[in-house]
Amino acid sequence: MPIEANYQVYYGMQLDHYSHIWGGITYNRFLWTEFPNENLSSTPTAQILTADFIYPRTIGKTDLDGVAEGHFTIYNNSTTSASTVTSYTVTLLKTADVPNSMETLGSYSNVISTFNSVATHNYLTLPMYIPISKQILEYNEKLILRIAFSTTTSELCICQMNDSTDVDIQIKIPFAATG
To answer: Of 36, 62, 152, 156, which is most buried by a Cβ count within 10 Å?
Structure first.
């Protein structure tokens, strides 16, 4: 691992009127380096157990090395009962514009048994720490953050709002220091 890395912060959100096709998949969830205009229509939550967020630009050939860190937020959409998050996995992937070409850069899984209940219409923010050991991102590849979690009910949602005052998904990715 490098002594010091250059980090780039990305924010995950879904925009309703924009999609991006890459590797044969249409994405409407994105990683952004800055929040877009708050007047853009976005979907605040998605009642799914797995979501992929793509960075819509290629970065150029670079090394990733270190620990990607951040957080994501889950919301309980239920009006009647609390829900429990039992485990989660966050994975940083790269992919070329070719179907089925995703490769894992690093992954983090966590089984949680305390402080994992989400009351009705409430939130739970979970940390992510993804170790990345000297991986190369090629000129023609894009980054994808995959968030997946397990729950005791079907009412939990991944938060993904375009709101810079209350960040739902944030990840700081280490690019190897050059020089």
So the answer is: 156
